[in-house]
Structure formats: structure tokens, C-alpha cells
Design goal:
The protein has 3 helices and 8 strands. With 129 residues, the chain is of the alpha+beta class. A hairpin with a 2-residue loop joins strand 3 and strand 4.
């Protein structure tokens, strides 16, 4: 299984990036690769219409460390842990997402990495806009 770290530097404070990105209601604004529409809450989980079909997402609790790790349960029933961090950077914040190749061909993995890169670029546009 491969892993790839994808990041973007955003010229604003890590706290501002974390506050925006960790709000479930904002997912469809910046994470189109995950959420194509508004999310629905189901207890601690989010039900999300994604490009993969309906998925279940559970984020770690809000915290002071910029950690936004989340588990995604795919339509197949497989759960994938997705490490996601917002850290301080000399130019503001850096957002780092780890993509893991689980149940994906090499081409599908490359596609997912491009989608994550596009999502992080969108987050950068919004935060710097």
C-alpha cells in the first residue's frame, strides 16, 4: 500500500484555517473530492454524498493541535483513516493530507491524490480570497 502526503501553504493563521476547514458545514465549499453537497449529521458521524457514493465520515474531536484526522467508511464497508493536519508555517499555515492506497488501482490512487490536491488548492483560494 502506498501513501502520499499532499500539502498547501496558506497565507493566513493556522487557527483560521482550522476553524473553517473543521466546520462540517464548510466541507462542500472546499472538499469537493469528499463532499459534493451539504452533509447530514448522524450522531457523531457525517453522511456525505461523495464522488464514491454515500459515505460515512467521523472526524476526531475539535482540538488545539490542528488535527483533523477522519475515518471514511466507503460504500464497500471498508473504513479508511485519513490523517489531516493544519500546522504553523513561516508564511501562515500548512495543510497536510495523507492519501493511502486502499482498494485502489494505481490510476485510481493518482486520481484521488489529484482530487485532494485540488481540494487543498480550493481551501487555499477561500482562505486567501
Amino acid at each position: 500500500m502506498k501513501s502520499r502526503h499532499i500539502s498547501r501553504v496558506i497565507a493566513t493563521s493556522p487557527q483560521a484555517v482550522y476553524d473553517f476547514a473543521s466546520e462540517p458545514g464548510n466541507l462542500s465549499k472546499w472538499a469537493e473530492g469528499l463532499a459534493k453537497a451539504e452533509v447530514t449529521r448522524d450522531g457523531d458521524d457525517l453522511l456525505v454524498d461523495s464522488p464514491m457514493g454515500q459515505i460515512r465520515v467521523r472526524f476526531v474531536a475539535r482540538n488545539a493541535h490542528g488535527v483533523m484526522d477522519h475515518d471514511v467508511t466507503l460504500p464497500s464497508g471498508t473504513t479508511v483513516n485519513n490523517p489531516l493536519r493544519v500546522i504553523a508555517h513561516p508564511e501562515g499555515a500548512e495543510v497536510i493530507f495523507t492519501v493511502r492506497q486502499i482498494e485502489l488501482t494505481d490510476d485510481e490512487f493518482d486520481r484521488d491524490c489529484r482530487m485532494v490536491a485540488d481540494d487543498l488548492t480550493q481551501l487555499k483560494r477561500i482562505m486567501e480570497g
